[in-house]
Amino acid sequence: MTTLSNTEAYSLLSLSLACVGVLANTLQGDGGAPLTASIAFSGLAFSFCYALIRWLGNAFIKRGFKGRDLCKLKQTEIPETMGAVCAMVYLFILIAFIPWPFYKDIVAATSGGGNRDVMKELDQLETGRLLHRFPHNKLASYLSAILSLQSIALLGIGDDLFDIRWRHKVLIPAVAAIPILIVYFVDFGVTQMVVPTPLRPYLGELFDLGWLYYAYMALLSIFSSNSINILAGINGIEVAQSLVIALLIVLNDVLYLSFTPYPHPATDSHLFSLYLLLPFIGVSVALLMHNWYPAKVFVGDTYCYFAGMVFAVDGILGHFSKTLILLLLPQAFNFVYSAPQLFHIVPCPRHRLPHFNPRTGLLECSRAEFKKPLAKPIAEGLKLLHRLRMLDVEIDEKGQVVSSSNFTIINLWLVWFGPMREDRLAVGLLAFQTAIGLLGLFIRHRMAMLVFTQDNW
Ligand code: UD1
Ligand code: MG
């Protein structure tokens, strides 16, 4: 596991060389196409991440970054916190990419004592800016995204090191969001939202949320990071669900880019989103290949926070945070469903991942045992959920609720469909998530015309 096989080494090497070739090609002529460069950088991100996960695994174990795979017969220790490797590769790739979308602007703004633009003929001015090329001021947003993602990586590694308590660690993403919030304040400061048509007589066309908008952005970071972290516990699910979300956002971006005439403000936002997401997909695929059943590495809280933050930053700076929430619906449902345990209305064990049955080799739903009798309204609530097939509750002969399945959709899936192997469980949940996401995107673009006067294609 610690070295690359010959086939792997040659494949990664050829892929890297091909990507470097494409990158060199984009530099020919007029400074190239950043979107092509971004795809090539994502290929490099994949190769680096894949190789580094292999090479660093043992070093991570030696330093104590390791975990037991609880859903296996032989619970061997494997490296944990591999999300840190992803984050590191991702951030360096994002930094190396800067010259592609911003190159011309940096040159124009810095050489010739700032007089260079003055020397340009009027008809040259617009030809200088190809599609995919950003104005200089977008660099501030881009750098703030990098700063926020760097902060979340640091805080995530801190959590994996010190196992911070739940009530403290939920706030970690809000702290990491500070860089983008500050730059957003300085740069755009746009805190209005478009009001749906039926409410316009009361609120006007635009409604200014003021500081609430910043609270909303901070909450979005908290939600998207933590909701991925609690939809976890079986091999591959953290990374694969993030990949599904990333691919759905990419689909949404590509639809925008194909249908909006250029120049249009939405074009830049969606390109920006692609530049952040493509390398993320690169590192995540490399990680998934090691984390899929049977897992050879764990991703750690670092990856869950990092992935959630990539989405939050992408949605905020790309101005599509409502669409993002739509794509996080399965995670949102899991969050709401988990609430009784998260807020300790019913007891919450340290781990809620499914229970491995060594006799059958299959996963069954794990249970929370209630040693003390539950308060009557809570017990009745659980019984009602049981009748609705939303929970599996065990009742003793006195009618007391003694245990229930844990409140996660992973366990709910097992309640519905019975015991199954770990990878089938993951595939089922992912197919469900993809279907909901596609439906969400479809409804979003159909319904937008009903509640707003126009879709922002
Ligand atoms: C969250 C969940 C917890 C779940 C855990 C699993 C809440 C409130 N917390 O806690 O219920 O059990 O994630 O990630 O919902 N592990 C496996 N197989 C896997 C992935 C993880 O056995 O495929 C185990 C390993 O022992 C690993 C540990 O889970 O070391 C990681 O748990 P950690 O991420 O620290 O848990 P939390 O994020 O605190
Ligand atoms: Mg975790």
Automatic annotation (TrEMBL):
Pathway: Protein modification; protein glycosylation. Its EC number is 2.7.8.15. The chain crosses the membrane at residues 39-61, 82-103, 139-158, 170-191, 211-232, 239-259, 271-293, 305-329, 425-443. It is found in: Endoplasmic reticulum membrane. It comes from Lophiotrema nucula. GO terms for cellular component: endoplasmic reticulum membrane. Keywords: Endoplasmic reticulum, Glycosyltransferase, Magnesium, Membrane, Metal-binding, Transferase, Transmembrane, Transmembrane helix. It is a multi-pass membrane protein. It catalyses: a di-trans,poly-cis-dolichyl phosphate + UDP-N-acetyl-alpha-D-glucosamine = an N-acetyl-alpha-D-glucosaminyl-diphospho-di-trans,poly-cis-dolichol + UMP. The keyword Metal-binding applies. UDP-N-acetylglucosamine--dolichyl-phosphate N-acetylglucosaminephosphotransferase that operates in the biosynthetic pathway of dolichol-linked oligosaccharides, the glycan precursors employed in protein asparagine (N)-glycosylation. The assembly of dolichol-linked oligosaccharides begins on the cytosolic side of the endoplasmic reticulum membrane and finishes in its lumen. The sequential addition of sugars to dolichol pyrophosphate produces dolichol-linked oligosaccharides containing fourteen sugars, including two GlcNAcs, nine mannoses and three glucoses. Its cofactor is Mg(2+). GO terms for biological process: dolichol-linked oligosaccharide biosynthetic process. Its main location: endoplasmic reticulum. InterPro entries: Glycosyl_transferase_4, GPT. Coiled coil: none annotated. It holds the Pfam family Glycos_transf_4. This is UDP-N-acetylglucosamine--dolichyl-phosphate N-acetylglucosaminephosphotransferase. One of its GO terms (molecular function) is glycosyltransferase activity. It is an enzyme of class 2 (transferase). Belongs to the glycosyltransferase 4 family. It comes from the Eukaryota.
